[in-house]
Design brief:
single chain; 127 residues; mainly beta; 7-stranded mixed beta sheet; 61% strand
């Protein structure tokens, strides 16, 4: 019921920055909101891990490895979530996936508690 499309990945050198964007859409014309949106990443041979998440009210959580470097934000009207990534290092290289859970009519009635994922966008940090 929800489609997520990421953008903004690319190749950068260590110390540089990238801004990832994710746009959520729904087939129905009814107004909706999303409880939690976030970003995960997965490097080859490694498990998928949470990078950052943010609630509809703006409460953010970060993995310890990115605290102080990454900032997650969202635009509830546009149904977008963003990840500003500063001071990137090679260990940040991964496919980054947008994620959301908790679809409501307006801001109230929960109608869908499934987890949705985007296709992913590649972030490569290399000198």
């Amino acid at each position: 019921q929800v489609q997520l499309v990421e953008s903004g990945g690319g190749l950068v050198q260590p110390g540089e920055s990238l801004r990832l964007s994710c746009a959520a859409s729904r087939s129905t014309s009814s107004s909706f909101s999303i409880d939690t949106m976030g970003w995960y990443r997965q490097a080859p041979g490694k498990a998928r891990e949470l990078v950052a998440s943010i609630t509809r009210g703006g409460e953010a959580n970060y993995a310890d490895s990115v605290k102080g470097r990454f900032t997650v934000s969202r635009d509830n009207a546009k149904k977008n979530v963003y990840l500003q990534m500063n001071s990137l290092n090679p260990e940040d290289t991964a496919v980054y996936y947008c994620n959301c859970r908790g679809i409501r009519l307006g801001d109230f009635l929960l109608i869908d508690d499934k987890t949705y994922w985007g296709q992913g966008t590649q972030v490569t940090v290399s000198s």
